[in-house]
Please model this.
Amino acid sequence: MIKISSYTKAFQLFGHASIIYLKLNNYLRKDFLKDLDFPEELKKDYSYHSQYYNRTKQYMHANHFFGELLTSILGRKMNQEERRLFANLSSCAPIFDDFFENNYDLEHIRTLLHHPNEENTLDPSEKLAVHFLNNILKSEIHKKTFLQAADDLFAAQIESKHQKENSLNQEQLLDISNRKGGFSGLMYALLLQESNSTKLTELGYELGAFGQLMDDVFDLYDDQKEGIRTYVNQSLKVIDIRFVLEEKEQLVLSIAKSIATSTKHFKKFKSVLQVFSSIIEMALEQYESIQDSQLSSPINCLNTERKLWILDMEKASNVRKLFIKSLRNFE
Model:
């Protein structure tokens, strides 16, 4: 039987997450565009300016929670300047994704990354990316370290373009996911005021890598359909995926425990992380049921229907299941 205290802690946790979500939505409505400081000539036509449609909102939601999770281990919340920096990096990220997907001259883009001069941009997307990047670089962050992390991420993204080829083995595919997520997480960690802490930036890297592996789990079928090979969708058995994720989670918790400002802050960090872990656990259990019924394995997922490999978190039954799993984590 689940203890009453576990229910109390779970309700407090979900309530805290709801408050973060509501505050972020309020920020997106009121201060987001102001913090991005759009160039006047791009305001009229660029879709980012629309208050109804903003492609970066999904990036902001994920990255804002990422920032709040990192600062929670230090016993504080993100401040206004950190939120501004996160907003600009979250706005810059999808444009860089487009550079890779739309076959831009990547050497030219890499030059802009290291020398973000608007005079060298060739179209509005490049100009906007440079604008957001300069909004970050004019702050008090350690620019050299930040740009090195950006370059490392850029290199990992270039390598990821080979994921459609059969030449990469499982170890190489896992390394790409680790570096893509890791250097992305590192870039955000470097925007925090404690970025001179080696352990905090290490936590940012490993937490980002964990997040990328989570995305690979959720996108198992769709990535496979698009011909994108990942460690997850090339695994012969679900247990191999489970082992990698559990190992990564334990590494994240180990680093977090070493820098937590108190036991209370570590427990809070662990509880939030385990909510996300519970969602992954639900997905893996679903995949295992497919595997055990001999319908398919991850590497052969295209032999079955897509709906079998999709975890629908809008279903009431899955929400209840997540809540129960979260309760057990508090016992």
